[in-house]
Amino acid sequence: MFARRRKHFGTPADKATYATLHTASLATPSLREGLTPEAAGKASKHLRDLLGTAAIAICDSSGVLAWDGVGGSYESNHRVDAKSIAAHTLRTGRTAVLGAGDVACRDPQCPIRTAVVAPIFTEERVVAVLVAYSPRSSAALVRATEEVARWVSGQVELAELNKERTRAMEAELRALRAQISPHFIYNALAAIASFVRTDPERARELLLEFADFSRYALRRGGEFTTLADELRNVERYLVLEQARFGERLTVSLLIAPEVLSVAIPFLVVQPLVENAVRHGLEGSTGIGRITIRALDRGSEAEISVEDDGVGSDPEVIRAALAGEPKGDSIGLGNVDARLRQVYGDPHGLVVETALNAGTKVSFRVPKYSSGVHASAWSVRHD
């Protein structure tokens, strides 16, 4: 015996709530792009559905970003007039309710007779307005238009925050490139120069490795790469360092094939390996051992770099991660900041160290994360 399915699920209020949330969710992706004409155009239909009005316009100081709805035979005139209608609210930040004398046209069939103009803010600054056109005005329409404009403001602010995050990451990356170069380029070129007379073929191979490393490290076009590409660049770095240190540098890798395609922020592994080389070998005469691991942890990939060198004072590491480096821990704070910006605080660096006890630096990243996509990249020998 089968139970009869209900034809209706929930109360009318439940259905109305669901419909409103669903419509808002359709507008969200476009608004998260910022208030560009293209994004406003995509969102405008959904915003009009939220308000249930005859037409809406989104305007900024430059003019009408988007229009959706009907306007009778005088629609083009209504669109042209929208800029002047928006001017007062753009200037004052106050909602305006306009009657037929301000917005109606001569077409008796045109449903546009009134308009509610509500401000859209970012950081307490009016950046645009939402104009809701309807046959008649009401207190409910005014409140609804203000609420929708307030919600749009929140989405636009999130878009600005995303842009700020991207700009911050780009600045961090530029700073990291500048920080790596002085530490590494001189030693790499000195090592290559030592082979020019004794082993020209080895010098040529090392120069090619150095060129590929530099091309990758200084590349443009994308904040993210695959773990495979990042490890390939680490390999180039280690080839150059082994030319310098010879048998004193030993490297072990334990890499799970399943995580090679995971997208990660560009240049987050190499700085950790460079730290390990410096702390594991420089200033000592023995053999330095470095272990690089990339392990599959279910929904995450765990990446770690460990050395058996001199270790560090934990307070020095804490200062480096806080952006106040007191030692020579190359890029630790930079890498930690970028990981937290992309994935959140739980995905920052974890550093285990003590004086004369070596150092292990590890972090975890989701295998799949919204907005994190590796850009295409290849290294070619010219």
UniProtKB/TrEMBL annotation:
UniProt-listed InterPro entries:
Bact_2-comp_sensor_kinase, GAF, HATPase_C_sf, HATPase_dom, Sig_transdc_His_kin_internal
Show the taxonomic lineage. Bacteria, Bacillati, Actinomycetota, Actinomycetes, Propionibacteriales
Q: Where are the transmembrane segments?
A: none
In its UniProt record, a GO molecular function of this protein is: phosphorelay sensor kinase activity
Kindly give the PANTHER family that the UniProt entry links to this protein.
SENSOR HISTIDINE KINASE YPDA
Short name of any one Pfam family annotated for the protein:
HATPase_c
- Pinpoint the Histidine kinase/HSP90-like ATPase domain residues: 261-369
Q: What is this protein called?
A: GAF domain-containing protein
Task: Please provide one cellular component term from the Gene Ontology annotations of this protein.
Answer: membrane
The superkingdom of the source organism is: Bacteria
Against SMART domains, the record matches this protein to: HATPase_c
